[in-house]
Each structure stands twice: as structure tokens, then as C-alpha cells.
């Protein structure tokens, strides 16, 4: 089996090659490419491999931009950091993907799909649909809220929200100037509408802005405790199941 890797971070591509060698000693990595431009040039000049392992975010943009420039005649497995909406979009569009950090077992399953011809051969059109979905999603994050305060309406920019918490009295926005406002929205609705690049739902009761975090501490076995700049006494615990996703979000 012949493989091409598109990945701009060399430790990641080195790790992929090591796992591939462990999974199949006869497997050949034809090229490791780091940019969209290099990838397009390579595919135009060489026969296509049996499969491409393609990181979504690379040095000069999104690897989706390769597809309008060259028609790949082979299956593609996308590699992506966790993003709930993006993963859902991959599933809806029937595209194969692996989550970072890639595990050898998952990589082995992907290779087996290639061998058994169960992987989609032409992903170009589906990638166009996926990119359209993701772009529309990116353009629809809430930038502001209009909140009734007594007999007035107050406009709050999303960028001015420090963190959000839920209590028995309702859902509350805590702003960067420490003002607190109650909103008639659920935590699920807010999580869906706020930009996931800067907001993260750490548990059922809290959504935090990246700039609100003062320090992150280990807590019990595999859990994390988040300490906020504004409210250092607030108990915000991240479960062991969600802690790896939180670490990936921090490291974007």
C-alpha cells in the first residue's frame, strides 16, 4: 500500500509514519507534504497513492483548498482536532476522519477500510459540500446579545463575555467588567451559538472564554480544575472524559 501524508507539524508526521510502519511493514510513504501548494504540485506530477492522510489545518490554510485545484483519484482520510460541529459535518457527509492525537488502532481501522475498498474513492464533491457547511457555520456565530435589563435593552458583545454559569436562578453572563446579566437562554443554546475557538463548555454549569482562565490544575485522577481570573474561588471541575478535549481546545 502506498500512502501520502499531508501534515505541516513534523512531530505529527513522524509519529504517523512510525505507526504506519508498525501496522504494515510493506507500506510505503511516497511523500510527506506540508503546504497546499506543495500538495497540489505533487499530485499533478505523480501517480496518486492508495490513500492520503490529510490534516485539515496546515501551514498555508485548510487542506480542503487542495480539491478545487486537483482531482484526487484515491481515498482520503482527514485528520482533525476535536470540534463537535466539524465532526458532525464529517459524519453527515460520509467522509472518513481521524481525531488528533491519532491512535494506532484507529489508523489501522482506516487502512483496513482502504484494503477492503470500503472507503470512498472520490471525495472532491463531498468536500465542497462540507466546506460550504463549515463556512456557513463560521459566519453564524453570535457576535452580540440584546438583553432586557429592567425597563431597558442592553447590548452585550460576545467578545465581552468572560464566562457563563447556570444556577437554580437561571443562566448568567459574567462580563469582563464583572457585571452579571441573566439571559433567557439555555446553556445548550449558548454553546451552540458561541464561537468554539474562544468559548468552551467545560461542564454542565459553565462555559468559559479562553481569556478568562487564570490557571488549570490537576484534580483527582485525570480530572482538571479551572481557576478563573475573576472568580478564583469558583469550583469548576472538568471530567476525565472531557479533559482531553479541553486540552486540545487550549492547544489550537
From TrEMBL:
<dbReference type="Pfam" id="PF04397">
    <property type="entry name" value="LytTR"/>
</dbReference>
<dbReference type="GO" id="GO:0003677">
    <property type="term" value="F:DNA binding"/>
</dbReference>
<dbReference type="InterPro" id="IPR007492">
    <property type="entry name" value="LytTR_DNA-bd_dom"/>
</dbReference>
<dbReference type="InterPro" id="IPR046947">
    <property type="entry name" value="LytR-like"/>
</dbReference>
<feature type="domain" description="Response regulatory">
    <location>
        <begin position="2"/>
        <end position="115"/>
    </location>
</feature>
<feature type="domain" description="HTH LytTR-type">
    <location>
        <begin position="145"/>
        <end position="252"/>
    </location>
</feature>
<dbReference type="InterPro" id="IPR001789">
    <property type="entry name" value="Sig_transdc_resp-reg_receiver"/>
</dbReference>
<keyword id="KW-0597">Phosphoprotein</keyword>
<dbReference type="GO" id="GO:0000156">
    <property type="term" value="F:phosphorelay response regulator activity"/>
</dbReference>
<dbReference type="Pfam" id="PF00072">
    <property type="entry name" value="Response_reg"/>
</dbReference>
<protein>
    <submittedName>
        <fullName>LytTR family DNA-binding domain-containing protein</fullName>
    </submittedName>
</protein>
<feature type="modified residue" description="4-aspartylphosphate">
    <location>
        <position position="55"/>
    </location>
</feature>
<keyword id="KW-0238">DNA-binding</keyword>
<dbReference type="InterPro" id="IPR011006">
    <property type="entry name" value="CheY-like_superfamily"/>
</dbReference>
Amino acid at each position: 500500500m502506498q500512502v501520502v501524508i499531508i501534515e505541516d507539524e513534523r512531530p505529527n508526521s513522524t509519529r504517523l509514519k512510525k505507526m504506519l510502519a508498525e501496522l504494515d511493514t510493506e507500506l510505503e510513504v511516497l511523500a510527506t507534504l506540508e503546504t497546499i501548494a506543495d500538495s497540489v504540485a505533487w499530485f499533478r506530477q505523480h501517480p496518486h497513492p492508495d490513500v492520503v492522510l490529510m490534516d485539515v489545518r496546515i501551514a498555508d490554510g485548510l487542506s480542503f483548498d487542495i480539491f478545487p485545484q486537483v482531482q484526487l483519484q484515491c481515498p482520503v482520510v482527514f485528520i482533525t482536532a476535536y470540534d463537535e460541529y466539524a465532526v458532525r459535518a464529517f459524519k453527515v457527509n460520509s467522509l472518513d476522519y481521524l481525531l488528533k492525537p491519532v491512535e494506532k488502532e484507529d489508523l489501522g481501522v482506516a487502512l483496513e477500510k482502504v484494503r477492503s475498498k470500503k472507503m470512498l474513492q472520490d471525495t472532491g464533491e463531498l468536500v465542497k459540500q462540507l466546506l460550504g457547511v463549515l463556512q456557513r457555520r463560521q459566519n453564524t456565530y453570535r457576535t452580540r446579545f440584546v438583553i432586557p435589563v429592567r425597563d431597558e435593552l442592553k447590548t452585550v458583545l460576545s467578545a465581552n463575555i468572560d464566562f457563563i454559569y447556570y444556577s437554580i436562578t437561571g443562566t448568567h453572563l459574567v462580563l469582563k467588567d464583572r457585571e452579571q446579566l441573566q439571559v433567557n437562554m439555555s446553556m445548550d443554546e449558548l454553546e451552540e451559538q458561541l464561537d468554539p475557538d474562544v468559548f468552551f463548555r467545560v461542564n454542565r454549569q459553565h462555559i468559559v472564554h479562553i481569556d478568562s482562565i487564570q490557571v488549570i490544575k490537576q484534580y483527582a485522577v485525570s480530572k482538571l480544575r479551572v481557576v478563573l481570573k475573576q472568580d478564583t474561588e469558583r469550583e469548576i471541575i472538568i471530567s476525565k472524559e472531557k479533559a482531553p478535549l479541553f486540552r486540545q481546545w487550549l492547544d489550537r
